[in-house]
Specification:
Blueprint: H1 15-34, E1 38-39, E2 45-47, H2 48-51, H3 56-60, E3 65-67, H4 74-88, E4 97-101, H5 106-116, E5 124-133, E6 145-154, H6 160-176, E7 180-186, H7 187-196, H8 203-210, H9 213-227, H10 232-242, H11 248-259, H12 263-277, H13 282-288, E8 291-293, E9 307-313, E10 322-327, E11 341-347, H14 348-357, H15 363-366, E12 373-375, H16 380-395, E13 400-402, H17 409-419, E14 423-426, H18 429-434, E15 436-441, E16 447-451, H19 455-464
Parallel strand pairs: 1-5, 7-8, 12-13, 12-14
Antiparallel strand pairs: 2-4, 3-4, 5-6, 6-11, 7-9, 9-10, 10-11, 14-15, 15-16
Helix pairs in contact: 1-6, 1-14, 7-12, 8-9, 9-10
């Protein structure tokens, strides 16, 4: 029998890890709800036609397809054989697969809005915290199964939405203690760049190449642009665009000389200015120090139409830990046009890795157990009384355990030590007779005698640690 293993790019999560992940989830969720977002969940799988063609050629290759149900008759077998023949030829086949695991949360959300738009109150603000799957090459910070935390607003074109989403990013990462850079660009500026370099049909070629800049460097990006049919003069314009640097103001000034009188580029320019300059109070200015224009930011997904975001953690080598942007006709993909939207996503798995590396989890979250007190098992009558006391403590939200069998003290002490349980309760025959039990703090050695009817004293002792 082969040794048990996990599929590549997936992980098990111990209780300690789940505790830390829940800390991240709960922090993000609390901020979402402060800004008026409501929760939504969608199925793990979607119809294949819902997902395909929405993420560009690169993204479509990473969609996990689900094989159709088993073959229960000869007709299905023949159709499946025909379907495999199509796939070998590079075509798709409904005989083989009609469903897929969701690639992200945005397209399923757009599908939900398209199906339910007549019942929704717009602008509709939802958040969603669920796993997604991508057939990517596993590496540090990149998994095949991972969680996303999304917040989206649909039914509104105002840039106030982008301003609030920046604020959500700043608030969440401040609460988590992660020093980040919030990068901003506009797909309208990238569209203008494409028009300057030969036409809007060049947009996908340009953005797909630019999106790889951090991974392959500018020389390889130029090489890819040549391979995609761009001419030397056009590549030179793109290179000068990618080399724009300086402060936010300096970057905008340099951009003007490249965009010239391009109208779509002017719109993108003004939208970035709006988000940067909105609200001049001191707190906003402090947060906007983290908001940085990055004209190399492309976000390789085809559905973005305006402002785009990406989050990078400072002081650690890690890919983006968040991103998003505006998509003004995403529901149009499902036959319901003219519902604008904008959204952001948090990459929880990478955020976890960053917080682990930088040791940012609070000490109470680092605890390996939810059990506050272990009651030693010292006999049947004693355990029965211990259980009665435990139930009173549990009613007051104090986690307790009774050791599962009567055995030597040493074994019960070791159990508490291995589980990280800080307090033990001793209730033997003498304590049962006296109507008291002994509560000991293992980290300090302090011990107190507590009457059976003085449960509140236990809580005071636990809180004082």
């Amino acid at each position: 029998m082969s040794k048990p293993s996990l599929p590549q790019g997936t992980r098990d999560f111990s209780a300690a890890v789940v505790r830390k992940r829940n800390y991240i989830f709960n922090t993000i969720k609390a901020v979402f709800e402060l800004y008026g977002f409501e929760s939504l969940e969608t199925p793990a799988m979607e119809n294949l036609e819902t997902l395909m063609g929405k993420y560009g050629d690169e993204g479509d290759k990473l969609i996990f397809k689900i094989l159709n149900n088993g073959l229960d008759n000869q007709d299905k077998l023949q159709k499946t054989q025909e379907g495999f023949a199509k796939i070998v030829e590079g075509k798709s086949s409904k005989e083989i697969t009609e469903r897929a695991l969701r690639y992200d949360l945005t397209i399923p959300f757009a599908r939900y809005v398209a199906m339910n738009h007549s019942q929704l109150t717009f602008p509709f603000k939802r958040y969603q915290i669920q796993p997604v799957w991508r057939a990517d090459r596993p590496q540090r910070g990149r998994y095949r199964e991972f969680y996303q935390c999304d917040a989206d607003i649909v039914g509104s074109k105002t840039l106030l939405n982008e301003v609030e989403l920046v604020s959500i990013y700043a608030t969440v990462f401040s609460k988590l203690g992660i020093d980040v850079e919030i990068k901003i660009n506009s797909r309208k500026i990238l569209q203008a760049l494409a028009e300057i370099c030969g036409g809007s049909d060049k947009l996908i070629d340009i953005t797909v190449a630019i999106d790889k800049l951090d991974k392959i460097g500018i020389d390889k990006v130029k090489e890819e642009l040549f391979q995609r049919g761009l001419q030397a003069e056009q590549v030179a314009v793109i290179e000068s665009y990618l080399l724009i640097n300086g402060s936010n103001v300096e970057k905008l000034n340099k951009l003007k000389s490249i965009l010239k009188d391009n109208q779509i580029g002017k719109q993108g320019f003004e939208e970035i200015e709006y988000v940067l300059n909105y609200n001049s109070n001191e707190k906003r200015e402090t947060r906007n120090e983290k908001l940085t224009i990055d004209f190399t930011l492309a976000r390789g997904l085809n559905y973005y139409t305006g402002i785009i975001f990406e989050i990078k953690a400072n002081n650690v080598q890690m890919g983006s830990i968040g991103g998003g942007g505006r998509y003004d006709d995403l529901t149009g993909l499902f036959g319901v046009p003219n519902i604008p939207g904008v959204g952001i996503s948090f990459g929880v798995d990478r955020i976890y890795d960053v917080m682990e590396e930088l040791k940012l989890f609070p000490s109470e979250v680092e605890s390996t157990t939810t059990t506050k007190i272990l009651f030693f098992n010292l006999g049947e009558a004693e355990s029965k009384k211990a259980y009665e006391i435990m139930q009173q403590l549990r009613d007051k939200n104090i986690g307790c355990e009774l050791y599962h069998e009567q055995t030597k003290f040493d074994k019960q002490f070791k159990y508490a030590e291995k589980k990280g349980i800080n307090h033990i309760a001793i209730l033997g025959s003498k304590e049962l007779e006296d109507g008291k039990f002994n509560l000991k703090n293992l980290s300090t050695g302090n011990q107190s005698s507590i009457a059976f009817d003085a449960i509140d004293k236990v809580i005071e002792t636990i809180v004082q640690k």
